[in-house]
Amino acid sequence: MANFYLDNPTLLYHLRHPLMKRIVELKERNYAEKDLFDYAPFNYEDASDSYTKVMEIAGEALGEVVAPNAEAVDATGPKVVNNRVVYAPETAENLKVITQAGLMGLTMPRRYGGLNFPMVTFIMVSEMAARADAGFCNLWALQDCAETLYAFGDEAQWNQFIPRVCAGETMSMDLTEPDAGSDLQAVMLKATYDEADDCWRLNGVKRFITNGDADIHLVLARSEEGTKDARGLSMFIYDKRDGGVNVRRIENKMGIKGSPTCELVFKNAKAQLCGSRRLGLIKYVMSLMNGARLGIMAQATGISEAAYREAVLYAKDRKQFGKAIVEFPAVYEMIANIKAKLDGSRAILYETTRFVDIYKTLEDIEKERKLDAEEKEELKKYKKLADAFTPLGKAFTTEYANQNTYDCIQIHGGSGFMKDYPCERYYRDARITNIYEGTTQLQIVAAIRHVFTGTYLAQMKAYQEEALNPELDGLKARLAHLVEIYEQLAQKVADTKDNEYIDFHARRLVECAGHICIGYLLLSDANRMPEMFRCSAEVYINYGEAEVKKIREFIERVPIESLQYYK
Question: So what's the pLDDT on residue 146?
Answer without folding.
Answer: 96
